[in-house]
Design goal:
This protein has 320 residues and is mostly beta strands. The chain is built from two helices and 16 strands. It is globular and about 55 Å long.
């Protein structure tokens, strides 16, 4: 699915526009007015921000899939206590061991709202998540980890949204099922498999839409020793999501990548490396670094600032 409609924005902490009629550091309109103005600007040569209607595209979905890989590794490190939950968007609660000796715990959303700037605006992120984790050992070594949940919800709203406003910008993600499985191999690697179903609902410029995704799947081969550190080596990864596009048709975004470097640091996670949208006839590259995510040479967005960076930035789904 091509993502050719790009719209411009006056950014606070996100993508740089190609030109400006006023000094770039001067805020001449409030956020909601700015979003409304930006939503009316189109054109292939312009940089991107929230559009005038909500619809999913392969560029934004590819960035979403890449960050779902970050999320999976972070959840594993939260379960194994390699990641400090206080620095993340989650809380961890230990439960009694299972009869077979495996460790059990729950991973839930923090009650705190995450305020950050990204994708042409200021956003408020929130999660309602409850995941069950189980860790199985053999000879005092982790052999398998499972993490699962149902009705796992997260959302992002424009900070400028008002209850009485009809011109709202928001994204709601509902994962009716979420399943993660880690399996340790006899060599120096582990395999991480993630799958889920659900829907993504959103509104841009007041125009609301809901897109079901029949399934997303992620498969990663990770260096085993690095999984116990903050510098995780993803040796290879594939990802796929099937969803309804803006015209109601079924679409699929598929990714494949190798040698991705993931630095886990709570609300400042950084993924460095690239994957390829293999479902696109042109095999477009999706690249992350410590500053931005880029798809080809037309779609580029800066990451939220360290300390306020969501693991999965849903606001990007407003950028078609």
């Amino acid at each position: 699915m091509k993502t050719s409609k790009l719209v411009s924005a006056l950014f606070i902490s996100s993508v740089l526009g190609l030109a400006a009629c006023t000094p770039r550091d001067v805020k001449v309109v409030d956020d909601q007015t700015r979003l409304r103005i930006n939503s009316k600007k189109g054109g292939k040569t312009q940089k991107n921000g929230p559009g005038s209607e909500f619809k999913l595209g392969s560029y934004s979905m590819s960035a979403f899939l890449m960050e779902k890989q970050i999320e999976a590794v972070e959840l594993i490190q939260l379960a194994t206590k390699k990641q400090d939950a206080i620095k993340t968007e989650y809380t961890v609660t230990d439960l009694a061991d299972a009869a077979d000796g495996s460790k059990q715990l729950t991973i839930g959303s923090s009650k705190d709202e995450l305020n950050y700037s990204s994708a042409g605006g200021d956003w408020k992120g929130k999660g309602t998540k409850s995941l069950n984790a189980k860790i199985t050992y053999a000879a005092d070594k982790i052999q398998a980890i499972t993490i699962s949940g149902s009705n796992v919800r997260s959302s992002v709203d424009s900070a400028a949204n008002q209850k009485t406003s009809t011109n709202k910008y928001y994204v709601n993600l509902t994962e009716t099922s979420y399943n993660l499985a880690l399996t340790a191999k006899e060599d120096s690697t582990v395999v991480i498999e993630v799958n889920g179903t659900g829907n993504i609902a959103g509104a841009a410029g007041g125009k609301r839409a809901v897109s079901d995704f029949s399934e997303f799947k992620i498969s990663m081969v990770v260096d085993k020793a690095s999984l116990d550190t903050t510098e995780v080596k993803i040796l290879s990864a594939t990802a796929q999501i099937k969803y309804k596009g803006g015209n109601g048709k079924d679409f699929s975004t598929n990714l494949s990548g190798k040698n991705l470097a993931l630095n886990l640091d709570g609300l400042c996670n950084t993924l460095v490396g690239s994957s390829t949208i293999t479902s696109d006839r042109n095999k477009i590259a999706v690249s992350f670094d410590d500053k931005a995510v880029k798809v080809g040479n037309k779609w580029s967005q800066e990451l939220a600032a360290c300390g306020k960076r969501p693991v999965v930035d849903l606001s990007r789904l407003l950028v078609y």
